[in-house]
Amino acid sequence: MTRTEYRWLLPSAMADPELPGDRPRTRRTVRDWAVDITAFLCAAGIGLLALTAIDADDTTADVFVLVDSVIGAAACCALWLRRRWPVGLAAVLTVVCIVEPVAAGALMVALFSLAVHRPFKPVAIVGAGALISAPLQPLLRPDPSTGFLASVIFGILLILLVLSWGMVVRSRRQLVLTLRERARRAEAEAELRAEQAQRLAREAIAREMHDVLAHRLTLLSVHAGALEFRPDAPAAEIGRAAGVIRDSAHEALQDLREIIGVLRGPGDTDEGDRPQPTLATLDALVAESRLAGMKVVVDNRVADPRGAPAATGRTVYRIAQECLTNARKHAPGTEVSLTVTGGPGEGLAIEVENPAPTEPFERVPGSGQGLIGLTERATLAGGGLVHGPTEDGGFAVRARLPWPAA
């Protein structure tokens, strides 16, 4: 969803979202029962206080006290309908309270529920009706212990307080819903950014491999053209050119297999010819690095390297190859530790760590694409890779890859 679409949706969808309690549920939850019982008890308590004041008045006949009791009990019982018909219930109780003070508690609960579960317009209409009818009840059923003006002011303030409290609760719930919606949108946008970063990393790897392939194929074309235009060249020169062509073709094929393996999606098949590097050839890679003058300490605890899956073994090999290359460029002269552990069912873990260089050296600029490619490769293989500096200033790369049980 674009930002323009989001702005168009914001006024209608987010200005006054429907709250969880706006629509009545078919079955009440434990929380609903607790709230309803509490509301009923509060309304009944206020009604009992009003009934006690009426009963204490000697001028009120017993039959009127009985009628007040029945109407007050009916008003309190009607609160169980406040979730389904909050507007209608509040309007009816507003009319009833004009002549029945015992229903005042039920009216307060109904107005609060109306303000919580309905938008401002119906709340304003019913609330205005309650404010207009506030002076009528003390006029028709005056309280001998309280003056008319004091009763009107107290009734108006109580109605405004209940309505304001309910609207504050609704506003807070709307804020919570809005924040949750924003959090969901932020998570969705983060996932999109992660997917875009992966796509960009794949494109960068593809461009890099394209450059390598172009170089090798160009070299192959040059030597093939020399053989074509100089068929009378000495045998040694022809053999040397043929060897270069053969090596270039073999390396180009390896690079092509490599880019196909890197760019293969998680759901693609993993069949066909595999590249030569595997977990079993890791020792040869270490030996080659040692011949180049590197200090490499190997701790290979894999009992059967040849039994590792081809994709997993190749990924381990490439991780080790890239890490040794980076250590040779950025920390020459240091001792690199290479640890490989795991087995069928528990997966493979590889850790390559080197300390900070102690002697000055000419830094080799790097693009950082190697570690990005390793992370993407490990993710596509079903595992994960983390890298970063260590506490002593060195650098460490740790990866875990799957190895299904036999």
TrEMBL record:
Record's catalysed reaction(s): ATP + protein L-histidine = ADP + protein N-phospho-L-histidine
GO terms assigned for molecular function: kinase activity
Record keywords: ATP-binding, Coiled coil, Kinase, Membrane, Nucleotide-binding, Phosphoprotein, Transferase, Transmembrane, Transmembrane helix, Two-component regulatory system
UniProt superkingdom: Bacteria
Enzyme Commission no: 2.7.13.3
Pfam families found in the cross-reference section: DUF7134, HisKA_3
Domain DUF7134 residues, every copy: 31-173
Membrane spanning residue stretches: 33-54, 60-81, 88-116, 122-140, 147-168
Stretches assigned to coiled coil: 180-207
Protein name: histidine kinase
